[in-house]
Write a structure and sequence with these properties.
There is one protein chain. This protein is of the alpha+beta class. The protein has a single domain, classed as Roll (Pnp Oxidase, Chain A), CATH 2.30.110.10. The protein contains four helices and twelve strands, in the order H-H-E-E-E-E-E-H-E-H-E-E-E-E-E-E. The strands form three sheets. A seven-stranded antiparallel β-sheet has the order 3-2-6-9-10-5-4. It has a three-stranded antiparallel β-sheet with strand order 1-11-12, with no helix packed on it. Strands 7-8 form a two-stranded antiparallel sheet. A hairpin with a 2-residue loop joins strand 2 and strand 3. The longest helix has 11 residues. It binds flavin mononucleotide. Flavin mononucleotide binds next to strand 3 and strand 5. The site of flavin mononucleotide has 17 residues, from strand 3 and strand 5.
Amino acid sequence: MDRFVDQLRVRSEPRPLREPTERERLRTAFSRFPTGVCVVAFEAEGGPRGITVNSFTSVSFDPPLLLVSIQRSASSHDLLLDRPFSVNVLGSSQEDVAWHFAGRPNASPVWIEGAETPRLAGVLAWFECTPWAHYDGGDHTLVLGEIQSFSSRRGDPLGFNGSRFTEISETVLGREHLI
Ligand SMILES: Cc1cc2nc3c(=O)[nH]c(=O)nc-3n(C[C@H](O)[C@H](O)[C@H](O)COP(=O)(O)O)c2cc1C
């Protein structure tokens, strides 16, 4: 009986088929940094388009700038450069929207016609930007936008941690006043 249990244990333990590559190890290390999830949206080829990103970073207040890092191999890459775009911060109930713009289309997203560029309905925050600059970022391009208008509301953000979507709880009321 004990031998049977031992055999079961040996069989059920996940064993890697091969050693992870350097790229996979780096991806795993990057994934230890939890982030929110955004959709970068813009108008191209006669309609609204979007790409899911977690590389959103606030950059500057004066002038108001933000940054997203876009992989060169994405079909959005060449279309996005030098166009107005919006960054839409997703709420925890918008995982399907994140998948939609990450290559797994599902129920159509609800678009809003912004002043500069299309944006998405129901998000926690949005920023409409005009192109500011872009910089070489290896196999990505760092795209900076100058914020022309923005808005935000309270709510739980969608998070990305350890290569999985997760829900981030809104800051406990009061805690932010301690900072
Ligand atoms: C949570 C999450 C975060 C992502 N972050 C980025 C990112 O910061 N930059 C990027 O270029 N792609 C990112 N991607 C991958 C793109 O969303 C994905 O490759 C997309 O299908 C590209 O679409 P396109 O080729 O139509 O432009 C992310 C995907 C997910 C699910």
